[in-house]
Design a protein that fits this description.
This protein is an alpha+beta fold. The chain is built from 17 helices and 20 strands. The chain folds into six domains: about 180 residues, Transcription Regulator spoIIAA, CATH 3.30.750; about 55 residues, no CATH class; about 30 residues, no CATH class; about 180 residues, Efflux pump adaptor protein, beta barrel domain (Elongation Factor Tu (Ef-tu), domain 3); about 100 residues, no CATH class; about 45 residues, no CATH class. Helix 13 runs antiparallel to helix 14.
Length: about 650
């Protein structure tokens, strides 16, 4: 256990976690801070319709069975403004049901010492525009009377409750109306009809709902017995579930009732399920015909399956490769960059970028002011470029169309970089995309405004460039090559000359030179790269000097690289040193050094057929109603036919 903290310290979790990483010791945050409420913490909501909003924490009622006052502290009410702001945000986000949480929401505001209480909070929430429900847990009857009293609150409130005593308030409390959900019973089953009817429920359906929820039958029976005993003790007569007949006889109802039933029927809105519940003879006959048709279909298919001497199976197009797994080093012709870097260093090249002789690799600034000045120069340069482009765009629509095409291309490139986790390239494309979008915006500006603004920016740029001339130092490339910012110490050890007459022992004893370091990076010269690895002599089949194979690196490259085997050493202790040479994709390999790879010497593609479906492997099926001797004779005939067919196929192949 590295970290222990209470719920009151949740807002300090990042700080506590940092302490664990920094001190490498256990951290316990159990201070008594029950009066602190941290606002603005991020909230993760799993439901898009219902939301829960805490309006207070803790409790002042020290009940014998409850530990809330001890672990959550005394009652603490959130600031009303914060609660209202959170509710407004939820309503704006589309939430339709908001539940106010608290151990005892009736006590909200008692600790604020402002006279603001729960009724004031409800009144202000009710005033927020929108279509939503507000729910909370509290003492039902007291809260209902308080909400209905116009002098106290007068809020429009919908109470969903199972307390039948509350339905009596309709007769004594003005503005209170009862509604219930229509229910249809059939035996011990109940069906909610999804209709709202005026009036209170005539009985409790809690036991039936418990039965639907899957409670054990013994519990349901016992609950019904207890309910009957309680109702008898309180002078309430038990009301049994109403039974409805499955089929109503036409002779049992009068002509008027039948006509009324037909008039109430709505064929346009009648669902198939409701129609089937009518249980008419026609419906029953139709269902019987459908069942017989389905059974007949499956029966015919089964007869055909067992009557066919041939069977089918699934085959796959499959590619098989002959590979050898090796581990080795990437070797390149590398030159470490040196030079004075006193000051603030700013690298100007990206990883794998090609640099010409004399090209700027980095800029050294004498102080922070010089670096800030350079940032201003870069910003002005981009703005000037955008304005010049906008002036050209006024000359024709072709420029704007070209710009739109470039924006779409950069968006696709940025998306591909993010998906491939190439953050360096993504940053470059993001900068280019921002500049293109701003250029597109400038094309709609007035030409007079563009010219005046362009002159002003050019004047500012000239002034800044003259100031920064003496405070910067540019570091250039001595030779042409690919730039890499990583210097790992192998640059002077793993060289092309090291690969000459390479042995397994020499490769296994390679160690980097820790004295080779540079903040500037290095240049990779030439276009060739090498991969040196030790290979088991049992895997050398297909790996010979001069042969061409493929390398599949374990990481860093998402494609197979075609390479040529340059040399294969003599075997030592069952292993040989092999050098592979490649000429492609060098910019993608600048960060790779010690790598595992699969050497692919050959590949085969074809159709993969399950073993049980091979020639002569068809399992005999016993025919119902035939003698075993007849079945064996029939199976022998089938095998002979299969062999004749195979010979014919082979003969046709030889003829081709």
């Amino acid at each position: 256990m590295d970290l222990v903290f209470g719920p009151h310290a949740l807002w300090k979790f990042p700080e506590l976690l940092w302490q664990v990483y920094e001190t490498h010791r256990r951290v316990f945050s159990v201070e008594d801070e029950h009066g602190t409420i941290a606002e603005g913490l991020p909230v993760v909501r799993e439901d898009a319709i219902r939301a829960w909003v805490s309006i207070m924490y803790g409790c002042n009622n020290f009940c014998t069975y409850c530990i809330v006052p001890y672990v959550r502290g005394r009652e603490r009410s959130r600031d009303p403004g914060c609660v209202l702001e959170e509710v407004r945000g939820l309503i704006a986000a589309g939430y339709r049901e908001i539940t106010l949480l608290g151990q005892n929401v009736n006590s909200y505001g008692n600790d604020l010492d402002t006279g603001y209480d729960f009724s004031d909070l409800l009144r202000q929430i009710d005033a927020i525009p929108g279509d939503y429900w507000i729910r909370f847990m509290s003492i039902a009857r007291a809260v209902l009377e308080y909400c209905a009293d116009k002098k106290l609150l007068g809020a429009k409130t919908l109470f969903a409750t199972h307390y039948h005593e509350l339905t009596e308030l309709e007769n004594s409390l003005a503005g209170t109306v009862n509604y219930n959900i229509a229910v249809k019973t059939r035996g011990e089953e109940i069906i909610f009809l999804r209709k709202i009817l005026p009036g209170g429920a005539d009985r409790s359906y809690g036991i039936e709902v418990a039965r639907l929820a899957g409670l054990p039958e013994k519990v349901v029976v016992r609950a019904r017995t207890v309910l009957e005993e309680l109702e008898r003790e309180n002078g309430v007569q038990y009301v049994a579930p109403r039974q409805e007949a499955d089929q109503v006889s036409l002779s049992a109802i009068g002509e008027g009732e039948a006509l009324d039933a037909l008039r109430r029927c709505q064929p346009d809105t009648l669902t198939p399920i409701e129609a089937m519940k009518n249980n008419s003879p026609g419906t029953k006959l139709l269902m019987a015909v459908i069942c017989l048709a389905v059974l007949a279909y499956f029966g015919i298919q089964a007869f055909r399956y067992y009557g066919d001497p041939l069977t089918t199976t699934v085959a796959y197009h499959y590619q098989l490769e002959q590979t050898a797994t090796v581990s080795g080093y990437l070797v390149r012709n590398e030159q470490v960059l040196t030079g004075s870097t006193g000051g603030l260093l700013r690298i100007s090249r990206s990883e794998g970028e090609r640099v010409g002789t004399g090209g700027v690799i980095a800029v050294v600034y004498t102080d922070q002011a010089s670096l800030d000045r350079q940032n201003q120069i870069d910003s002005l340069t981009v703005q000037i470029d955008q304005l010049q482009y906008a002036e050209e765009a006024e000359q024709g629509s072709a420029v704007s169309l070209k710009l739109d095409s470039q924006i779409v291309s950069d968006i696709l490139a940025l998306r591909a970089d993010v998906a491939a986790d190439k953050l360096d390239a993504a940053e470059t494309h993001e900068t280019d995309l921002r500049a293109l979008v701003l250029k597109r915006d400038y094309t709609y500006a007035d030409s007079g405004d563009l010219t005046a603004k362009l002159k002003d920016l050019q004047s500012q740029l000239k002034s800044l460039q003259s100031q920064s001339a003496s405070s910067t130092k540019r570091i250039t490339a001595p030779v042409a090559g690919l730039y890499s910012a990583v210097v790992d110490g192998y640059e002077t050890v793993l060289t092309p000359d090291f690969l000459k007459d390479l042995t397994p022992a020499a490769l296994l004893s390679v160690k980097k030179d820790d004295s080779v370091t540079s903040q500037l990076g290095k240049l990779i010269l030439g276009d060739n790269w090498y991969y040196a690895a030790t290979v088991s002599t049992t895997d050398l089949d297909g790996i010979t000097k001069g042969s061409t194979v493929k390398l599949r690196f374990a990481k860093g490259v998402d494609r197979d690289l075609r390479v040529k085997v340059t040399s294969v050493s003599e075997a030592e202790n069952g292993r040989a040193a092999v050098v592979f040479t490649g000429e492609d994709y060098l910019p993608e390999l600048t960060l790779l050094r010690q790598q595992s790879a699969d050497v692919i010497t050959d590949s085969f593609s074809g159709i993969r057929v399950p073993q049980h479906a091979g020639p002569g492997r068809t399992a005999p099926r016993r025919r119902a109603g035939k003698h075993p001797a007849e079945q064996r004779a029939g199976h022998a005939a089938e095998q002979a036919a299969l062999r004749r067919r195979e010979r014919a196929v082979r003969a046709a192949g030889q003829a081709e």
